[in-house]
Amino acid sequence: MTERKILVTAALPYANGPIHIGHLVEYIQTDIWVRFQKLRGNRCIYICADDTHGTAIMIRARQEGRSEAALIAEMQAKHESAFANFEIEFDHYGSTNSEENRTLCAEFWSAIRAAGLVKEKEIEQLFDPQEGIFLADRFVRGTCPNPKCSAPDQAGDNCTVCGWTYSPADLIKPVSTLSGASPEVRKATHLFIELEKLHEFLDTWIQSGEHLQPEVANYLQGHFLHKPLRDWDISRPAPYFGFEIPDSPGNYWYVWFDAPIGYMASTQQWCDRHQEDFDSWWRNQETEIHHFIGKDITYFHTLFWPGMLKSAGFNLPTKVHIHGFLTVGGEKMSKSKGTFIMADTYARHLNASYLRYYFASKLGSRLDDLDLNLDEFVAKVNSDLIGKVINLASRSAKFVKQVGLSNTYPNDQGLFEHAAKIGDEIANAYEHCDYSRAMRLIMELADRANPFVESAAPWNLRKNPEKAQELQDVCTIALNLFRQLAIYLAPVLPDLAKKTGELLSSPIQDWDESKQPLTGTPVRKFKHMLQRVEPKDIDKMMEESSEQTAPTSSDDVQDSSDWLDAEPLAEQCTIDDFVKVDLRVARVLTAEDVPDANKLLKLTLGLGGNEQRTVFAGIKSAYKPADLVGKKVVMVANLAPRKMKFGISEGMILAAGPGGQEVFMLGVDDGASPGQRIH
RNA sequence: GGGCCGGUAGCUCAGUUGGUUAGAGCAGGGGACUCAUAAUCCCUUUGUCGGGGGUUCGAGUCCCUCCCGGCCUACCA
Q1: Of A155, A209, A397, A538, whose CA is between 20 and 30 Å from A244?
Q2: H or E, element range at A233
């Protein structure tokens, strides 16, 4: 086989938050692929970096009273240690905030300029006079401009109540979520890349060959490429944490411009350290470039990024591998349910190998979401890894500790040869990121090996000294079959491969070692290679995950400031203002689904006696109608009725939370009765 | 509303270009073994392959239609 030259990247984690198990799907998936390529003898490097620029980092650094540099340095150290805990081994882990990146950005920029793709446009944007910065859509909230809706407290780009989309400048009574000040409209000149000029190229690139999974190519075609591509707003005015654009003082490259270039800057750093030629990686048709990303950033990696690379004359991605999100127990990860598991939390309680194997057994080449089902997790790891695979070594190694492996490989009725042949199929599955198929094939081999040991019964052979040779032969076969599996699993379980190498005095270094039996080597004393998963450890991990957000004792409560940051306190009001709002205890009398509505439930609320209100509440995704009936809730009883698509709503229910499944209604303690006013 | 993916045994899934009585693992039941991390081995139960129509000598596999679930979108990057 000729050696391939492969550069692999995983998406750059943003320096604003810690790594959680959702992130790990990608880094583990990528790590497996890279380890596989290396094991096959290919030249392969795994490049990543922290993504450090943008408004969010700037604002957080301000709030924490320190420099951006200090913040991102701390985050990067945390990220790298989290990855190390999961045996994710990068060849280089850099940062987008590096001189190498600045230089490369400038190189891209002049190429894109030279290609005539840049144009200036004046746009109107909201500006926070108190903080002195322009506000991205998500930092503005206000009343929905749809006259039929007028829902308060909506985000800057769309209304969650009526679904209107608009520009933040259209909001009525907009408020900056940073300072609470009312923003003013200011004009600013932004730089845009005219992506439409690359339309034909992108069309061809996306449709031709194997650059993308077919469903992704299809999606891009249907969503973007059937019409002219919009200009891409690539600059942000100062102040902005990032790189200033050399020929446009006061303007900075938008974080999504410099982030993917970070792949290359990180490669550059690696090259400098290893005396490698950068151009042989990024300007070399022989080199393959593989990006692994989540489906949320498809757009940037499949349209802008190839466009940028094309314009600047670099290698285009050979393939962009896109994966889905992680769910836990079939649902989106949720802090309140304890299923939002941080990488560090997992690592404190469970072994990384479990998760690597579990993910591998579930990952296919498509972008479906992947579910972490904890019962399945325990069953898979314990029965597949411990029960089937490791058991092979565990039950045979001790019999040959004195004598080692036989000098010639005995007749095993074709077991080894069969497994060697299947190896090609397994390799093919790895190559195509179809890890679940690879794991299935490997377990089928394990299922053939154990019956062999069973029928050969080494534990009987050892009782008869005359059968010493037969005993050694049987164990030589069992251990070789085991070693084959360890080689096939090596990309997923590097630790198992290492321990297998130690046990048999022969390190696993190449995939093709699975084709040739190992003979005549000493066998070390067998030590457990992996403990079984204990369900109680999972319970502890879940507990710890819940505790982080829902502490039970008030002594050491440390609530996050995220919510206040996202939505600062409103302007002061007087008691007179407050009494205008008539809050009442109400009982849910009926609750029914509104079939055509995405978010609404229709409730009848009783205020005692015959006083009732019909209220449409946006809690459909968080509550079932049946669970609501009889419940006491808090409502705004004197709210002006509003006509909605499905009827008139005569009030609103008080609830907190960001929306979606995370909506939490206010309850009242026992003793309060419907109709009572809340003072 | 549009797009994509999926609906096969209690659970997780495999079923290659349509071809014989539809499979595996796990779970369940029975037995064996006791070398092994209560691991292993043998035997064993279970399916209107989402519903309905069609093409065909023959359909889980192709076509149409409907139902259900997930994801993405809703003139927005």
Answers
A1: A155
A2: strand A232-233
- A69 within 8 A of A256, measured Cβ to Cβ: no
CA–C1' distance A473–B10 (Å)? 42
- Give residue A581's pLDDT: 80
Select from A323, A322, A446, A432 the least CA-distant residue to A395. A446
The bridge status of strand A370-372 relative to strand A326-328 is parallel
Predicted local distance difference test score (pLDDT) of residue A563: 56
Q: Which residues pair with A15 in a beta bridge?
A: none
- For A15-54, write each residue's pLDDT tens digit: 988 999 999 999 999 999 999 999 999 999 999 999 999 9
Scan residues 388-417 of chain A and list those with Cβ within 7 Å of strand B: 388, 390-391, 394-396, 398
The two tokens of residue A269 are: 């750093």
Ramachandran region of residue A323, left (φ > 0), alpha (ψ -120 to 50) or beta?
beta
pLDDT > 70? residue A160: no
The DSSP code for A568 is P
Residues 115-154 of A near strand B (Cβ < 7 Å)?
Answer: none
d(CA A637, CA A365): 53
Statement: the CB of A621 is under 7 Å from strand B: no
Return positions of chain B under 7 A from a protein CB.
3-5, 11-15, 24-27, 34-37, 39-42, 70-77
Question: CA–CA separation, A77 vs A488, rounded Å?
Answer: 32
In tens, the pLDDT along A285-303 reads 999 999 999 988 998 999 9
HSE on the CB side for A43, CA within 13 Å?
A: 10
Write the pLDDT tens digit of every residue in A124-133.
888 888 888 8
Size of chain A, expressed as the number of residues it contains: 679
CB of residue A386 closer than 7 A to nucleic acid strand B? yes
Which nt sits closest to A443, CA to C1'?
B25
Give the CA A212 to C1' B8 distance in Å: 29
Distance, Å, A215 CA → B53 C1': 29
Å separating the CA of residue A451 from the C1' of nucleotide B30 = 19
Q: Can you give the pLDDT at residue A551?
A: 41
Q: Can you tell me whether residue A16 is helix, strand or coil?
A: coil
| DSSP H helical ranges for A115-155 | none
Distance A212 CA to B2 C1' (A): 22
Q: Within 10 Å of residue A554's Cβ, how many Cβ atoms?
A: 6
N-to-C CA span, chain A: 79
Tens-place pLDDT, residues A322-357 = 998 898 888 888 777 778 899 999 999 999 999 999
Read off the pLDDT of residues A633-674 as tens digits, 9 standing for 90 and up: 888 887 777 767 667 777 888 887 665 556 777 877 777 778
Please check the confidence at residue A435 and state whether its pLDDT lies above 60. yes
CA distance A106 to A247: 9
* pTM confidence score: 0.81
- What is d(CA A568, CA A571) in angstroms, rounded to the nearest whole number? 9
A165 touches strand B (CB under 7 A): yes
Contacts of A527 (CB under 8 A, 6+ apart): A499
Q: Residues 184-223, chain A: which have Cβ under 7 A from strand B?
A: 215, 218-219, 222-223
Q: How many whole angstroms separate alpha carbon A71 and alpha carbon A274? A: 29
Helix (H, G, I), strand (E, B) or coil at A106: helix
Length A356 CA → B38 C1' (Å): 25
pLDDT band at A587 (very low <50, low <70, confident <90, very high): confident
Edge-to-edge order in the sheet of strand A232-233: A133-134, A118-128, A184-193, A232-233
Please state, as a whole number, how many other Cβ atoms lie within 10 Å of the Cβ of residue A84.
14
